[in-house]
Amino acid sequence: MSDDRLEIDLDRREFVALASTLTGVSLAGCTGGGDGGDGGGDGGDGDTSAATETEQQVTEAKENGQTVRLNVGLAHGVWNFDPAVWTDTSSSTVGSLIYDEVVALDTDEQLQPGLIEEIPDPIDGGRAFEYTLREGLTFHNGDPVTAEDFKYSVDWILNPENNAPIRSRLPFVTDTEVVGDRTLRMNLEEPFATLNWWLTRGLEGIVPEGSRGETREGKGPAGLATDLTKDPSGAGTGAFQFVEWKSDSHVLLESFDDYWMEDAPMVDEIRFDIVPENSTRLANLRSGNIGLTNRVPPKDVESLNGRPNITAKSVPGNLTEVLYLNLMEAEGNPMSNVNNRRAVLFGIDAQEILDEIFYGQGVVQKGPWYPDSEWTSPKLKEMTLYDPEKARAELEKAGNPDGFELDIIATKGSWFKDEAIIIQDQLSRIGIDVSVTAVEKSTLFNQVYGTTDWHAAMEDWGQSIPVATYWLDAGYADNNHNHNNWHHASPDLKDPYEPSGPPAPEDAEGDYSNGHEWFVAKLREAQAATDEQRQKEIVYRLEEYVVENAIQIDIAYVNKLEAWRNSVSGYEIGTFVDEYRFAEKGE
Amino acid sequence: MSLARYTLKRLLLAVPVLLGASVVVFGLVHLAPGGPVRVMLGPLQSEELVEQIRAELGLDRPLYVQYATWLFDAVQGDLGTSWTVQQGTPVTTIIAERLPLTVELTVLSMIVANLIAIPAGIISAVRQDESIDHAARIAALSGISIPDFWLGIILIMIFAVQFGFPWATGGWTPPWVDPVENLKQLLLPVITLGTAYSALIARMMRSEMLDTLSQDYIRTAKAMGIPSREVILKDATKNALIPVVTVIGVGLGQLMNGAILTETVFSLPGVGRLFIQAIARRDYRVIQALVLFVAVVFVFANLAVDVLYAYLDPRIRYEEGT
To answer: What is the model's pLDDT at position A47?
Structure first.
């Protein structure tokens, strides 16, 4: 051994001892327990005792003047605080606490009056609705909410110059009139009996007159941002008022003392932390940094429920996994052939996809709508869609007994590619050779909604309004813009689109150029009908038609998975709506 | 050539480098499929509206016209406003808000990593083939091999979930608000980001030290009776550091890249995460500004390394034409 070594007067044992001591000292100095244990078990009675204990803790905290804050972990960032401009779920989740809907949806998917006194029925043969505001409503800035504010909020959306992305959620509304102290009339160009349902997402807030500012004056790209986009201070009527937003970090709201609803909100502050990484978000929940989180990965539900301080819940969700199909005739596009499409429909085992990717957390679809719903055709409920023999028979009919080549594009970064790969495997068993290409979401959108050069696309769709006619409309009806390039001849049909898809049903009454024209006409009839039974009959027929002709492949509705610590109580999770206003947080 | 002239020359040469980088990125970003308009509007909007918005944003003009417009504004300090990440907010404001975190994370990682790596490399070289050398080499190899995002998640699991430390899951309190909380929150991200970098520096330092220690002048110094500690720390280390300084400088850019994953895992709202969002949401203005920023950092980091080189080794002088 060389004598030139540097002499350090510390042997290995001493070094380890010193390092351990220093580590221990530094960790002791940094110790601050998280939520620690919540105490109590998690059984049925444990839930009740935990909730009671939470109420006691909340009461004590309030008596002591402590601020009770609920921390919520969100998987995606918030982009916009203007209810007329936001199009994403996170912005809507946070925004729903700053504003109130005119017509609200509760966690049981029932309509409730939001800012209005009662849900109105259509008048004037279904061509108008009149909405009367509650008395005594105030904005967060203290100003009273008036019918003029109501009119401004709706007119801004209707004004084509504003390019409001949610304009399509107020279908057939042409103009508004103030007809009373607190009453606004909405006039429609044609009868539309389900307008109230559409307003739950079409009018998510009333804002003060003029509060959006001059949007064409360089406020954001092409005027798509308003004065409320980044700072809605004072403009809401909701249970919480805006305090601060740090992009990609958090949104902080504080309770509004003059909120019109009694006994709400139950916490002083609510903070939404943006934590996109699943592992980190769940670690935050486990450590107590956050009390509640959405978007729990399916694989983690069971393990979370195994922890004593955490409850994970899986409820029917509003996200449908869909394989869009391009119906337009184009060279090399096999999906323009109905038999090829039916082969794909019968060749996909949706249950396998649900089990493999979503751990069984969801329900296989038998058409566009929820399979257990009264709005799903009884005939479809009886069908078994997965049938490889039927698939092979369809290939014979198509003149492709040996199959064909199919390209599926899928969005990167989520489970779409995995779903497409399973479909690739399933269809290979019946001779369909599938290639899967993963692309960015914006690339997929551009290709599917801007070109005719694609075969099939794997994506999902979040149902925001719990009526079957909404999905039939949003997904299929627009002649220039739907998921499947399904069009009918019309003066307003633009390039590069051409009429496509199967013919109208043989029993169709009337003269229709093709199935899409028939579909749209019947859909409008259903939307105008005030008789629910008549609506259902039409909806059933439309659903049967889209399935029989495999216009698109609806795979499964996946469950909504959320988790919270037992220190949180009063929070309600629904398919379309989550209720934060009554959430309480103890120690 | 004097160092001052050399520095000036390098600064002037930086201009075409930055121009070249901006052209390449501009082209790549605009030619890639997808675009910001559908991100802004959502999927089910009419093609008419999409084209109208594209025209209003100038995206229907020839690429060279768009680039020239951007360049003209950029040299005046106007990098445009964000389209999709933070609609309507000037890009410079967005970057300025996020920059302190990334700078703090990167600099702290660099300092901590070097404070560990350089002594570790020296000790490892001096105690070559002893157990401490083996341990250090294994640790260095592990540090280079472990993916930083995995390390980050494991650290979160241990410190946040197992031990319940609330600061261990990330987040960022500015140091001017609460310096203690700030350092606690950055502890694990710094370890995550600095580990691979530290391992690389340690290995490099060991290698250079071994080479230097075998030089004749070291033997001569010891033979002259100069204490070993002084020979090692003053003579050998200083010379061994010269090539290591290059790696340290280049490593700054690597740290900034690594910050992307670290910021994602620890939910830190820094420039790295901004990069990811801007790419996913096709915010061309933010992407171009960030690439320009990173290019500037690389250019100045390399320049600083070269200047430091000349300071550390008087033999190094930059000739005309270098």
So the answer is: 39
Q: Is the dihedral of CA A234, A239, A244, A250 positive or negative?
A: negative
Residues whose CB falls within 8 Å of the CB of residue A566, separated by 6 or more in sequence, listed in order = A38, A40, A42, A46, A47, A50, A54, A309, A310, A311
In the stretch 450-489 of chain A, residues with CB closer than 8 A to chain B read 450, 474, 478, 480-482
pLDDT digits (tens, 9 = 90+) for A142-166: 999 999 999 999 999 999 888 888 8
Interatomic CA distance for residues A456 and A333, integer angstroms? 9
pLDDT tens, position by position, A351-394: 999 999 999 999 999 999 999 999 999 999 999 999 999 999 99
Is B245:B312 a contact under the CB 8 Å cutoff?
yes
**What is the secondary structure of A61-88 as a DSSP string?**
HHHTTPPPEEEEEESS------TTT--S
A118-130 average pLDDT score: 94
Roughly how many angstroms between the first and final C-alpha of chain A, as a whole number? 61
- Rounded alpha-carbon distances, angstroms, from residue A275 to A194, A334, B150, B171: 37, 41, 17, 9
Alpha helices (H) along A292-366: 301-305, 338-347, 350-358
Q: What is the pLDDT at residue A62?
A: 58
Query: A87: closest CA among B41, B36, B46, B88?
Result: B41
- Inter-chain contact A287–B35, Cβ cutoff 8 Å? no
pLDDT of residue A363: 96
CB B170 within 8 A of CB B157: no
Dihedral sign for Cα atoms in the order B29, B34, B39, B41: positive
Q: A135-153 burial by CB neighbour count: b if 16+ within 10 A, else e? A: eebebbeeeebbbebbbbb
Mean pLDDT of A452-467: 91
Residues 6+ positions from A382 with CB-CB distance below 8 Å: none
Q: With H, G, I as helix, E, B as strand and everything else as coil, classify residue A165.
A: coil
Instruction: Give the tokens for residue B7.
Output: 């520095």
- pLDDT given at position A46: 34
Strands A553-565 and A362-364: antiparallel
Beta bridge partners of A438: A410
Whether complex ipTM tops 0.90 = no
Which residue of B lies nearest to A447 if distances are taken between CA atoms? B34
Determine contact: A5 vs chain B, CB below 8 A.
yes
- Is the N-terminal amide bond of A297 cis, ω within 30° of 0? no
pLDDT of A63 reads 61
Residues of B within 8 A of A75 (CB-CB) are: none
- Structure token pair of residue A551: 């216009």
Helices within A190-248 (DSSP H only): 195-202
For residue B25, CA distances in Å to A449, B18, B19, B63 come to 26, 11, 10, 12
CA A113 to chain CA mean position, Å:
21
Best to test chain A binding among B52, B78, B86, B155 (most A CBs inside 10 Å): B86
At residue A53 the predicted structure's pLDDT band, cuts being 50, 70 and 90, is low
Q: Indicate the Cα dihedral angle A155, A158, A163, A169, nearest 10°.
A: 120
CA B70 from centroid of its chain's CA atoms: 25
List the Cα angle A529/A532/A537 in 5-degree steps.
85
Q: What is the pLDDT of residue A61?
A: 58
Q: Give the CA dihedral B220, B226, B228, B232, nearest 10 degrees.
A: -70
Q: What is the pLDDT of residues B30-54, one digit of tens each?
A: 888 778 887 777 766 777 778 888 8
Interface of A with B in 222-261 (CB under 8 A): 222-225, 229-230, 246-249
**Strands (DSSP E) along B113-218, which ranges?**
none
Q: What number of CA atoms fall less than 13 Å from residue B57's CA on the CB side?
A: 29
CA distance B99 to A185: 50
Structure pTM? Answer: 0.85
